[in-house]
Specification:
This protein has about 300 residues and is α/β, with parallel strands linked by helices. About 45% of the residues lie in helices and about 10% in strands. Strand 6 and strand 7 form a beta hairpin.
């Protein structure tokens, strides 16, 4: 089962690719990059089902708990906003579930989907550019992490998480609570870096256990820093831990695109002037598509 962290991937594509526009002047780089990734995943993974998770436009429960949550993030630039308006049309063409639940983030939706699907003995691959989702990695759940521009994607299994962070996936919220998260505007404990955080989590197990036995922490300055920042660290862990009980919409958790869906996606690619993507799409559904588009390729400028 293929689960996509949609906005995370679209944002990554926007920042990874040079400016692209159609002959009409419509910005397309984010949509193009996302489409390239989607076709690659469909070809290489051959999923039995697909679902897209999206963030709701309203504030989430995390904003209610912490007013400064994600407070330092910049507004999306106009070319990206323009493409986000077009994105639903592209996603809906595949006729698979689009999961967006008010009050929750896409990460929580993905956590709930992965939990329910793995409970049915399904194997799950989550595709994202957000490290918070690595806490979901298990024997049946893998995370395909799309890094920044120039970095190759990494597929995380439990051993890979331990190798990278020094703690098991289920302990990552405690790890993140100690080091903080700049992108989410969560301050960490001064003087606590990844190595120290991993050591503390391995020794004590969780933030609550660390604070309950803080008298055993050495050196003294680290012990005092943990005590002084205890409320923020506890809050960090609550905010970082993903919810697995999101009230998902009724219906299937994932779906499989049919021939008509590929035909509709083909029309969108032609309209967006993604000429190079049409043959790739045709290779996935040869009976549904005409591999000879007549529209020009989108122009690209740096």
């Amino acid at each position: 089962m293929l689960l996509l962290d949609t906005y995370s991937l679209v944002f990554r594509a926007f920042h990874a690719l040079p400016e692209m526009n159609t002959s009409r002047g419509e910005a397309t780089s984010a949509l193009y990059g996302f489409s390239v990734l989607l076709l690659k995943l469909l070809k290489e993974q051959r999923p039995s089902g697909i679902a897209f998770a999206l963030d709701a436009p309203k504030r989430t429960f995390r904003h209610e708990q912490y007013a400064y949550y994600k407070g330092t993030r910049d507004r999306a630039p106009p070319p990206l906003v323009e493409q986000l308006r077009r994105l639903p049309t592209l996603l809906q063409a595949l006729s698979v579930p689009l999961m967006c639940v008010p009050g929750y983030e896409a990460d929580d939706v993905l956590a709930t989907l992965a939990t329910q699907l793995s409970a049915r003995d399904e194997r799950v691959l989550i595709v994202t550019g957000d490290r918070d989702l690595l806490q979901l990695v298990s024997d049946r759940v893998r995370v395909w992490f799309v890094g920044a521009r120039g970095q190759k994607p990494v597929c995380f299994d439990p051993d890979k998480v331990v190798e990278r962070f020094g703690v098991t996936p289920e302990r990552l919220p405690s790890f993140a609570a100690l080091v903080g998260d700049v992108s989410d505007n969560l301050p960490g404990v001064r003087g606590v870096g990844p190595a120290t955080a991993a050591k503390l989590v391995r020794e004590f197990g969780s933030v609550e256990e660390i604070l309950a036995h803080v008298e055993r922490v050495e050196p003294e300055r680290l012990r005092h820093a943990l005590q002084e920042n205890a409320p923020q660290v506890r809050l960090n862990e609550q905010l970082t831990r993903l919810r697995r009980d999101v009230p998902l919409p009724e219906g299937p958790l994932a779906g499989t695109p049919q021939a008509s869906a590929f035909a509709q996606l083909n029309q969108i690619f032609v309209e967006l002037e993604f000429r190079s993507l049409v043959p790739r799409l045709s290779a996935l559904a040869p009976a549904a598509l005409d591999p000879r588009p007549t529209e020009p390729e989108a122009s690209e400028s740096v």
